[in-house]
């Protein structure tokens, strides 16, 4: 096996483990939203969503792009002083910045809160979430360092198991005890404080965090500076709709929209699992050849796409049923918004880890420009659509912005580096699977009972059909044998019927 196949195998092996863990954490996060949405009114859930949006934006700005810079530089250093210095450079800079952001937001609370919130408890909720910002930033820097050491187990333990799991348990107990909306903010702050201790205890097992270090302020700042703006703009793409809904419309509309949004977000799970190992491995491959980066990009994108099409079709065909089953009938009006936002998220599956590929190639300024363009379009669409159409307008603006962003990055990779996620063979799957599954899904819609088990059975059946279509159109390539071997090793099954469709080198 050559080194490129070995790196691809590493991504796939890690992705299987991270995928399972991400499924667990995503289920915990979604269940948390469901608990909050059901135990509070749509208006209360909407106010939680606005506070969470402020928290996320503040934390993203406080991280200053170092969550991508740290793993990239740590993966390229061999000397322990350099490795420790890369982590410490990010920690020192982001801690100071995030504390400053929290102070500014607390001082501005008398101005911000009346514009975005309606309840009497809003100020307390806002302040608690703001205090949690620097704690979260310190936590994410620790996770970035673990990622830079290419350690999957510790990342999963902190980010995918403990943090969402403990937070879910705590918020459930507090809300069930009648604490009220403030319980959501306290759950985030308290859980983060404990998770920080756990994260750095695990990081210290990978390398001694105390000791001599060599800071890399100049080169890491040069790399991360464009990401400071691009990451905050990228986060604004996911939060602007919530904030503008809070400003222009009622908290209840914010709540209904934020029932649809996380459900559509399940389409990002598979890509996120692959992406965890993709950036450090692709960065290392870039030092050898752009062709190696392209090849890994092609293979991972194809299988993420095959995996996600059935889930996308399910969200597209049964949006109102799904949102009613999960959040309750009071949120059923968000069904159409769920279908629209799902279309935008699905474009990520179609073009794969495009922004991580740009980062691996050192083109962070392009990420900045593409995010900025999409953000401006998003704001303009929201300004026009939300006052007129409420959360439906926000859904259209969000989906349109995602489509524009992914199209922009695709075009740049295609014409600047000649890199695309498509090959002659994989194009067959990218075309045939949705062409067959989307009409078929709408055709059998009325035959599927409105129950969660039956909708899940529908998704699994379409997933198997997607694999059959991929085989039938002969979209498999030689390196797909790695995925087959991975499944065989984990299940003790022999997939001979698939092997015969894989061409030799």
From TrEMBL:
The keyword Cell membrane applies. The keyword Transmembrane helix applies. The chain crosses the membrane at residues 12-28, 48-66, 87-113, 125-146, 166-183, 189-208, 220-239, 259-279, 300-319, 331-352, 364-385, 391-413, 429-448, 454-473. It is found in: Cell membrane. It is a multi-pass membrane protein. Keywords: Cell membrane, Membrane, Transmembrane, Transmembrane helix. GO terms for cellular component: plasma membrane. Its main location: membrane. InterPro entries: Poly_Biosynth_Transport (IPR050833). This is MATE family membrane protein, Rfbx family.
């Amino acid at each position: 096996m050559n080194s490129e196949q070995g790196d691809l195998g590493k991504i796939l092996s890690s992705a299987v483990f991270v995928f399972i863990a991400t499924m667990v954490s995503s289920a915990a996060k979604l269940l948390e939203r469901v608990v909050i949405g059901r135990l509070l009114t749509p208006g209360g859930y909407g106010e939680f969503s606005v506070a969470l949006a402020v928290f996320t934006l503040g934390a993203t700005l406080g991280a200053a792009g170092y969550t991508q810079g740290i793993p990239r530089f740590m993966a390229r250093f061999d000397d322990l002083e350099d490795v420790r210095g890369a982590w410490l450079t990010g920690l020192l800079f982001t801690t100071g910045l995030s504390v400053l952001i929290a102070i500014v937001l607390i001082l501005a609370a008398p101005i911000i809160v009346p514009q975005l919130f309606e309840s009497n408890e809003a100020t307390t909720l806002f302040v608690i979430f703001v205090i949690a910002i620097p704690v979260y930033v310190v936590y994410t820097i620790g996770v970035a360092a673990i990622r830079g050491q290419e350690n999957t187990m510790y990342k999963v333990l902190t980010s995918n198991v403990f943090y969402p799991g403990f937070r879910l348990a705590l918020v459930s107990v507090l809300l069930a005890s009648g604490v009220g909306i403030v319980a959501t903010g306290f759950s985030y702050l308290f859980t983060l404080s404990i998770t920080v201790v756990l994260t750095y205890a695990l990081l210290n097992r990978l390398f001694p965090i105390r000791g001599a270090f060599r800071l890399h302020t100049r080169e890491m700042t040069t790399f991360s500076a464009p990401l400071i703006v691009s990451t905050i703009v990228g986060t604004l793409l996911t939060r602007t709709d919530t904030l503008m809904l809070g400003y222009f419309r009622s908290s209840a509309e914010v709540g209904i929209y934020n029932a649809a949004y996380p459900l559509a977000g399940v389409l990002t799970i598979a890509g996120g699992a692959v992406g965890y190992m993709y950036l450090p491995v692709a960065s290392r491959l870039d030092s050898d050849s752009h062709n190696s980066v392209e090849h890994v990009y092609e293979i991972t994108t194809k299988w993420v796409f095959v995996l996600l099409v059935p889930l996308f079709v399910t969200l597209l065909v049964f949006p109102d049923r799904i949102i009613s089953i999960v959040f309750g009938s009071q949120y059923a009006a968000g069904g159409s918004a769920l279908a629209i936002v799902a279309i935008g998220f699905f474009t990520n599956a179609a073009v794969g880890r495009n922004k991580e590929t740009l980062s691996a190639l050192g083109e962070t300024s392009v990420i900045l420009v593409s995010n900025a363009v999409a953000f401006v379009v998003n704001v303009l669409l929201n300004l026009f659509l939300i006052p007129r159409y409420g959360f439906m307008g926000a859904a259209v603006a969000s989906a349109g912005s995602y489509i524009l962003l992914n199209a922009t990055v695709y075009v740049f990779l295609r014409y600047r580096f000649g890199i695309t996620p498509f090959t002659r063979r994989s194009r067959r799957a990218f075309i045939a699977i949705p062409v067959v599954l989307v009409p078929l899904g709408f055709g059998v819609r009325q035959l599927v009972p409105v129950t969660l088990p039956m909708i899940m059975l529908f998704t699994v059946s379409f997933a198997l059909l997607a694999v059959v279509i991929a085989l039938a159109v002969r979209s498999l390539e030689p390196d797909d044998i790695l995925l087959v071997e991975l499944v065989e090793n984990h299940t003790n099954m022999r997939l001979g019927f698939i092997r015969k469709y894989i061409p030799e080198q």
